[in-house]
Each structure stands twice: as C-alpha cells, then as structure tokens.
Design goal:
Elements: H1 2-12, E1 21-26, H2 33-41, E2 46-47, H3 59-70, E3 81-86, E4 102-107, H4 110-124, H5 133-152, E5 158-162, H6 165-168, H7 170-181, H8 228-247, E6 251-255
Parallel strand pairs: 1-3, 1-4, 2-3, 4-5, 5-6
Length: about 260
C-alpha cells in the first residue's frame, strides 16, 4: 500500500525528480523550530516547513523525504532546497548526506525550554512522561549533549543559531540565515499558513504559530516549577554544549545574542 501511495505521489509531482539541495536543522523541542520552519517554508526557494520524524541514513532517506513531503503538499516551481528538522536522538542523521546542502544547529536555554516542553505535553498528551519536569529536563540535557557530539564530529560546515535570536533580534537573524543559505529571495518575518500549521505531531500546536508573523512576546510559564538543582544542571549542560558547538572546526558562522557572534 505504501509503495502504491508513493507511486501516486510521483505521478502527481513530476518535479520530485528534481534534485533539491537539503537543509537540515539539528535542534531540540521547543527551540522556536516551528517558527523557523515556517519562515523557511514560506520562501519560494524552499520546500518543507515541519518535522517529518524520519532519520537520514542513506540517499534513500532523501528520496523518502521528498515522497513524504509531496504526498501532502504541492510543489513550488522556483524551489531549490528542501527542509527538515531533527529534534530527537531516536532519528539518526548522517551529515555526509548534506555535503551538497546546508546544515544548521540551534539551542535554546533550559529556563525557557523545559517549562515549555512540560506545558506542551500537559495540553496535548497528559499521560506522557514529559509532563514531569524531571523527565523533560532529562530529554533536554541528553539532547543538547548529543547535538554537541554530532557538531564536533561533523563532516560538513554548519551554522550555529541561538534560537531566541529569531524573536529577539529578528531582522539581523533572518538576514544572516538568508546569506548562509544563499537565497535569492531573503527571508522575512511574515510567513504563510501551511496545510499542517498548528497540527499535532507536526510541530508547534499552540495558537501563536497561526499568527503568520514573528511574535516577540513569549509565554510565561510561572505555573511550572522546576527544581533549582535540576535547572542548574541543565544550564551547565546547555552552556557546555553551546560552547562545544561554536568551537567546532566546522562551525563557519554563528548567529547569537552575545558578543561571540
């Protein structure tokens, strides 16, 4: 049945045979990745805007990426790139597959990220382990450490992004991303509603993603209390991972909120 569905997708989208340059975002949950995906996916040169929840093991994975995306979305005539993001260690990524594309890493501090993870799961999946602050913190610390290891051994050049620059320093950030990607049409802070915007399992399901523009104000999670010990450990892991990613010999550009950019 899946093979038949893929065949139908090929027949509907002959542009599937076009060779797109892949863009991969290596990050973690609740790091403004849905916002970034929508900003990228609204550009005429880029297909894709949400997480496909697949790994990238070989050239076949890049074909699968196109089949999954175009099964639900029409193609753009001017598109040269196809985007996906990977936010979990469950999905292996061989960065060698992206030598002809673009690679980005993004981190967000734990003080904002961990309560956001807990809040998300409490609203959409109340029985999930990540409704517990300790489990959410464990996911976060393990993921940022994993991202640091991947970055340090990366076989390709990449850009590092402080995730909060998207909301706190929007225009310079979008300019830097446009330059890094080599876009003919620069990114801008307004984006299009997509078929899966706000849908569960396709990224941010909150109302804010439906605004169609970068929102500077973010939610205050004062009702979610994370122990000082847990947060301190998460902060330490974040700072270590961030430093290791930026110091990687393959990190050729940084977009940060600090002077080290």
């Amino acid at each position: 049945m899946q093979a038949l569905n893929h065949l139908r997708t090929l027949l509907r989208h002959p542009m599937l045979f076009r060779r797109y340059k892949p863009i991969i975002l290596m990050s973690h949950m609740r790091a403004n990745t849905s916002l970034l995906g929508h900003l990228l996916g609204s550009n005429a040169e880029i297909e894709g805007y949400y997480e496909l929840h697949i790994g990238y093991y070989s050239w076949r994975s890049l074909i699968r990426q196109k089949l999954l995306h175009f099964a639900r979305h029409p193609s753009k005539r001017a598109a040269r790139f196809i985007f996906d993001k990977v936010l979990h260690d469950d999905h292996y990524v061989d960065l060698n597959l992206f030598k002809q594309g673009k690679v980005m890493f993004a981190l967000r501090p734990p003080e904002k990220t961990i309560p956001s993870i807990v809040s998300l799961y409490r609203s959409v999946e109340p029985d999930h382990p990540y409704t517990d602050t300790g489990n959410a913190a464990r996911y976060y610390t393990e993921r940022v450490q994993s991202l640091a290891r991947i970055a340090q051994s990366s076989p390709v050049d990449f850009l590092y992004l402080d995730a909060d620059t998207l909301r706190e320093d929007t225009s310079p950030t979008l300019t830097a991303l446009s330059q890094f990607l080599g876009l003919k049409q620069p990114l801008h802070e307004h984006y299009e509603q997509q078929p899966l915007t706000g849908a569960e399992k396709a990224g941010d399901s909150s109302e804010s993603i439906g605004s169609g523009k970068v929102e500077r104000v973010t939610r205050n999670y004062a009702d979610i209390q994370v122990s000082k010990e847990v947060m301190a450990q998460a902060r330490e892991r974040f700072e270590e991972a961030r430093s290791q990613i930026i110091r990687s010999p393959r990190c050729i550009r940084t977009v940060t909120l600090h002077a080290d950019s």
